[in-house]
Amino acid sequence: MKLTYKEYKRLIDCPYENKLMWTRQIIGMAIKQSKSFLVSLSWGKDSVVMSHIIYTICKNGNYVFANTMCEYPETYKYRDFMLNNSFIKECKYFETKPIKTFFECVNLYGFPSLRQNTGQGNKRMPKCCNYLKEIPLNNWKKENKIDLTFMGIQATESMNRRLLFMRLGGLYFSKTRNENVCIPMAIWNDDDILRYAKENDIALNPLYKTMKRTGCMFCTGFKSWKRIMAKYDKKMYEKILLKTDGQAIIKECY
User: Fold this and answer.
1) Counting beta carbons within 10 angstroms of the beta carbon of residue 72, is it exposed (0 to 12), middle (13 to 18) or buried (19 or more)?
2) Higher-pLDDT residue of 225, 201
3) Are 62 and 39 in contact (CB under 8 A)?
4) For residue 143, what are the contacts with CB-CB under 8 A and spacing of at least 6?
5) 75-89, 130-144, 234-248: the lowest-pLDDT one
6) What percent of the chain has pLDDT over 90?
7) Most buried of 79, 157, 174, 175 (most Cβ within 10 A)?
8) Distances (CA, A) of 106 to 7, 125, 195
């Protein structure tokens, strides 16, 4: 369903209660068309809130964490807590494992360069993303005959995500994936996420107390990686910067 910019703005700016209603409706619509669906659970705030909303609608989903084996330590601790102390313990939960490790990919292909967009099947996607996450996840989907994937992304996070949502809407068929894809959090923002988590007593990843993002802690495929890595792990930052930039003298980057 293609959206005009005016329609997009109307959805983005509508009240929280309307956003929640829209999200629940599109989730229900997607599930009715599916025989077996997957909820992509990264342990970031958007995917956790999305997972809870889906859980309140249907208990039959597969909640899958594409474990890259190089997530932040806080994420793994949070995962363990949630598996034992939240609604997730009642779900069908699975993890995929990388085909190659991050540093095996680095030795073969170099460190990740800045990606140009977030589209699946993108030739500019870093090789490590394919071997750590995409290929293992796609293999799991084929083995389990998944025909629908839920992804917790916000349209306001980037220009490409906004254009994707405007062009295809919140539920669309992906030729690359050969499956339906639902992005039910597309019209939400961080304040909406935090409100839902508070109202439903959902603990969020403690990594957000010091960081704005979760994901691979060694990733160099986004603009602010130097500042973030220098703040979190200065020794790793210096090691990677020497390899990527060839600098003998490392300046602090805060």
Assistant:
1) buried
2) 201
3) yes
4) none
5) 234-248
6) 71
7) 79
8) 43, 14, 39
CB neighbours of residue 54 within 10 Å: 26
- DSSP letter, residue 133: I
At 19-56, the pLDDT tens digits run 999 999 999 999 999 999 999 999 999 999 999 999 99
Residue range of the domain that includes 43: 5-207
- Give the up-direction half-sphere exposure of residue 184: CA atoms within 13 A in the CB hemisphere: 28
Q: How many domains is the chain partitioned into structurally?
A: 1
Specify if 228 maps to a domain. no
Q: How far apart are CA 5 and CA 11, in angstroms?
A: 10
Task: Report the CATH number at residue 200.
Answer: 3.40.50.620
Express each pLDDT in 96-109 by its tens digit.
Answer: 999 999 999 999 99
Residue 57 in contact with residue 91, Cβ under 8 Å?
no
pTM attached to this predicted model: 0.89
